[in-house]
Please model this.
Amino acid sequence: MRNSDRLPPRELPKRRSGRHRNPLSFDNWFGTPTLIMAVPGTAEQARDAEGELIGARMADLVRAYRPEVTIRFGHTEGHELGIEEALSDLEKSDERPLAGVVVPLVTAPHGGTNAAVAAAVASTGADVRVTEGLGPHPMLAEVLHLRLAEAGFVRADRMRLISVTARNTTMADGVVVGAVGGEGAVGAAGVTAVLLAARLGLTVLPADLENEASIEQVVAQLRQGGCQRPVIAPSALGPEIPAHYLADLAERHGARPGAPLGADSLLGKIAALRYAEVLNSLGVEQPPTAEELPAPVGSRHRPES
Model:
């Protein structure tokens, strides 16, 4: 017979698993891989308006999500803070399943960046795994929305009612999501364009920023639909394409250039998610089975006589 005056056995805490589990969380474990961000272009190209390196700023932002991880960055071109330097001491070790995870800071497949990272890994012999870029991802549409709103081209909040008329002559009535990296990048920009159109209630189309004919065709398509104030919004962090090129391109087609994405906390979150995906594939986040859990001890857990 069980005593009613005794406290019930304390249940061991259970780790949340499955589809509703936080994808950014995982157990600290010995030999946590280093997170290396591959920044396209040279260090000089990767400086923002204040002169700060985009890689350094992104490292600070990612650290908010991964404080326990060593975070580095390296540029795919040039000799200053190159990607080879960031990979130099990440050799294979029996004490850890993986030395590092490389996250390319591109929003879509980018042949030049991918080739540079692959060459750096091969030359250094680093024990790393390279993830996909930051896109396609739903949060990219939110970052693009923020950049357009900061420039005064669209409303800062999401659209309340569908409207095809801009509120004033400075707001855009059509947006071109500019991709850098070829056909695969345009496909990824198409996903972002659909999500951005849902946020803004405007016509949004993707185009290849490196293909003059693609821009001309898409802008003409917008004008046929009644667009008078198109904006070209680059779906890129910035180093992938020179600022003067984007300004000249927009002027030639009677459009206005938007700002590149730059360093952003949402992009930092995507990078942290890419890192967590690799750790998940290594089994780091596998919850223990009932047999692996330690048995409870103490007088409260002794069986009743």
Summary: The beta strands are 34-39, 71-75, 100-104, 128-130, 174-179, 203-208, 230-234, 256-257. The chain has eight helices and eight strands.
